[in-house]
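Quick illustration, no need to memorize.
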Amino acid sequence: MAVRHRLIKTSPDRVWEVLADGSRYAQWVVGTAASQPKDGEWPQESASIGYQIRLGPFEVGNETVVRRCVEGSVLELEAKAGPLGTARICIELRKWGENCLVIVDEHPLQGAGGTLHNVGFEMLIQLRHRAMLARLAKTCEDGDATEEREGRSRPLGRYATGGNGAGHA
């Protein structure tokens, strides 16, 4: 089971704001070229987003579904990867002083990914998580820095859902 963590130098509210915006999925998920809301209202349970993965001239579309959401602290996803099967990805946010400790726990659920899962595969997931958490940190921390430079404050407790512009209170 691939578990990795990272301290992100911003509040859990800010990190949740990024996670709760399905249209920003491609900004922090490694290997994803574009994302868009598909069904339901992200990140509510059973909501999904579609995304594209580009490998050279090839493009493959897949889907990620929310399986569990504890607003502001836990987002549990099922990522579908075509013939490779599906994976469970749990992202947990913990307040750590003024910052946010993000813990990612991923393991294959079904399909070839589960059958082929071994130490080498685990190492690749760890490398992917390291890059993904670095991208998430940059996305969250850069957003804070931009707002501070521009003298703006963000309304806490409001989360973008992408597509229709509606938010959650």
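The chain has a mean pLDDT of 82.
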